[in-house]
Amino acid sequence: MLRILFSIFIFISLLHAQEEDKGKKIEVTAKNISSTKTTVTGSDGVVVYYGDSVIKADKAIYNKETQLLVLDGKVEMIGYMGSKEHSNHLEIQTDKDIVTFKDLFMVSKNDVWLYTNKAINVDGNYTFGKSVLSSCEANDPLWKMAFERSKYDSEDEYMKIYDAKIYFKDVPIVYTPYMAFSTNNDRASGLLFPLFGFSSSEGFIYDQPIFWAIADNMDLEFNPQIRTNRSVGMYATYRFVDTPQSSGMFRVGYFKDKPSYVEDNNLIEDTHYGVEFNYDSSKVFSDYMPNGFTDGLYINTIFLNDIDYLNLQKSRLNHYSLTNFQESKLNYFAYDDDYYAGLYAKYFIDTSKTDNSDTIQILPQVHLHKYLSSIFVDNLTYSANLQVSNYTRQKGATMQQVDLKIPIEFTTSFFDDFVSLSIGEDILYNKSYFGNSTFPHDQFQYYSNTHKAKIFSDLTKKYDTFVHVLQPSLSYLKPGYVSQKPVDFDDLEIEQQNLFTVYKPEENYLLSMGQYFYNEKSALVFYQRISQSYYNQRVNKLVDLSNEMQYKWRTWTFYNNIVYSNQYKELRESSSRIYFSQSSYRFGVGHTYKETLPDDLTSVAPSNDLNFNFGYTYSDHIGFNGNIIYNLDSAYSEQWTLGGYYKQDCWSMTASLRRENTPRPNNQFELQDTFYVQFNFIPFITVGSN
């Protein structure tokens, strides 16, 4: 909407230069000039210099008594911003600074034109008669905006348009009886363009944004909406910039369902409401901290009673995912080259539950970290990481935990740096306190130290047409001293064990190898990373084998990543894709496979999906794109999109048809088929509908 108004403002600005003191200087030149006692007449090459504009005409008559300058014939005005205005008749009341046009045609420097049957300027206040505006060819415009009359106040830079219609060819597609807006680049209060839509279950959908520009650094947008089969609701979003380094958004919303809709869809809740707050700052207390320290604050919070609070929004704020399990997060951090400190808080809401009193919250968590540093000698390094966490909830066991990790490592090289060796020690200390319930042991302490050794190399060889980098390594880990008090972790109550896990080191060997091939331009052509661990104390000594590869050949990319279970002799997971891209078209085919094996029945959801996506640019004006996810087990596609675009210099259109799996209340999912179309009338307005 602002783009409409600003472009119209260009026309007005180009019509006359910015107003100065009353009474602009006028200079008239012509090849033939004659005068009487009261008039001066010029013809043949008439040029008028009026303010910052140059006006050409066939004939000019100036009345000395009335101080009226009349221009006739082919009148052409060149404005100070580079536009051209054409008219059959122009009158300038020089003493009162009143300018009148008849049959005015204007073209701006960005090829937007306007035709009006009459235009009057009085002291910077403009009135237009019937007008037509477009950026397409004037003879047969593909789109145009027509309005009965309009007014413009140059001092307040504000435009009012009455009875406006937007036509595609000769078909009206949008009408508004009144439109008011600011014509400069500043945000202005008013109505934004609405959202139209239709749903088989919700009926006709109408969302009308109302924008309030409170100040340069803040605004408020109201979004009342109607869903004819469902009911009405309202969302409001407050946006602000409080410092040059920080900004935020605050949103509230409420929607009340009709009883018939609740009954037909078996909903538990008949109201959907929520509050959201996002804030990001890259500087909070840095000015008051020691030199070298930088800090920041990130807040992403949401409170809602069910997932439909998000589904009913016209546009969603940035959160982690559209699922029934929502996370709120607050992170404050400060750091320099040696240290990092963080204060965190996490709050979770499971909208599939009617009561979240037993949901674990992390309020708060303190994190201190010492970056890698040398001690005594350069190749003896250490780091330290400390976390203090409070896991709380109203119902069920709670826990306060201190977790300290200190890795120490010594690294050296042999054989002219062809082989490197590192030996190290990992020290782990954990202390947990349990509450909100009665247990035989209300605290638990765990300590372990682990011995590590690694032999590795980083070899590079240059050939005639490529460079090969080889990085083999062999690691060995051996548990040291382990202490668990007052009992072993496995002897704690199940409710206590569900709160956390402890790292129990096992003796193992890890063999890994990475290799990389680069072409003559140092671009990566091929890489492979493979690793295999061996646990000599286990019955199944060989654990999962992982192998990742990627190869680029011209405009083709081939990728594969597999995890193979040696214990069960089958794939645990696999991801493969082939991608092709060039200037006019692209496509990709991928396959994702995940198997639920007996040792992991809860954390992995099985999948066997084929993914295809493409994009095709038919010409400079037409393009197509789409994707589909097809489940090979069910032989059914739950998600797909097919769309395209058409664009010209003065307008463009984007359309798509898609199917999405949308989360609904009660932990259910609903397949939704959506058609989307958007018209962009360059450079003014975008019209879209779902």
TrEMBL record:
GO biological process terms held by the UniProt record: Gram-negative-bacterium-type cell outer membrane assembly; lipopolysaccharide transport
Protein name (Swiss-Prot/TrEMBL): Outer membrane protein Imp, required for envelope biogenesis / Organic solvent tolerance protein
PANTHER family linked: LPS-ASSEMBLY PROTEIN, LPS-ASSEMBLY PROTEIN LPTD
Cellular component GO terms held in the UniProt record: cell outer membrane; transporter complex
Ranges that cross the membrane: none
